[in-house]
Design goal:
The chain has 188 residues and is mainly alpha-helical. It has one domain. Helix content is 79%, strand content 0%. The protein is built from five helices and no strands. Helix 4 runs antiparallel to helix 5. The chain is flat, with a radius of gyration of 20 Å. The N and C termini lie far apart (58 Å). 24% of the residues are buried.
């Protein structure tokens, strides 16, 4: 028998799998079956996966389950899928179009210079958005619990979200700023 925390972890993993399955089905409908309306309908379902996860998490907490790290992770997962979902969908769409519909080869991510720095800054800004969404969702879950003392595992996600921003800044834009000109050119 799964504990409540284990159930939330299973649900998070299931949502990630569902995201990619629905995305592949949407792209297959668009490029292999030429059914654009079906493809759009499936793509609209992607945010519903997140809605189901946060609803289940809130219901679990509302019925008296003690908040755990897993409940906060569900909020973080949703924050990151909202912030990075469009990037993942665009990437998958370009790859699928190229491999199955004779589309152009997707451009590679920048590997040096200011293009790399700007690329990493763009991703870092998405990280900030994801962290803000995470904190907002955590606050909503704390409200559902109704007890700040019991909600400490949720409130710890404020620090985790801020930590993600700092680590991403260091390993993303700052690292690429320091190393972007030391890398050999791919075309040399």
């Amino acid at each position: 028998m799964l504990t409540e925390a284990q159930l939330i972890y299973v649900l998070i993993i299931s949502c990630e799998v569902a995201f990619w399955v629905v995305l592949v089905l949407a792209l297959a409908a668009r490029y292999l079956r030429k059914r654009k309306r079906l493809s759009r309908g499936l793509l609209i379902c992607l945010p519903l996966i997140d809605l189901l996860l946060i609803t289940f998490t809130a219901i679990d907490l509302r019925r008296g389950t003690t908040p755990t790290f897993a409940h906060g992770l569900a909020a973080a997962y949703i924050g990151f899928t909202i912030a990075f979902g469009p990037v993942a969908v665009k990437w998958a769409d370009e790859q699928f179009a190229h491999r199955f519909a004779a589309g152009p080869k997707p451009p590679p991510a920048p590997s040096r210079g200011w293009e790399l720095v700007l690329y990493d800054i763009n991703l870092w800004v998405r990280c900030i958005v994801a962290a803000a969404i995470t904190v907002a969702l955590v606050e909503g879950l704390v409200y559902v619990v109704g007890d700040n003392e019991r909600s400490q595992p949720l409130l710890a996600w404020h620090k985790h979200a801020f930590g993600a921003i700092v680590v991403w800044l260091i390993l993303g834009p700052i690292w690429s700023l320091v190393t972007a000109w030391r890398r050999p050119r791919a075309d040399a």
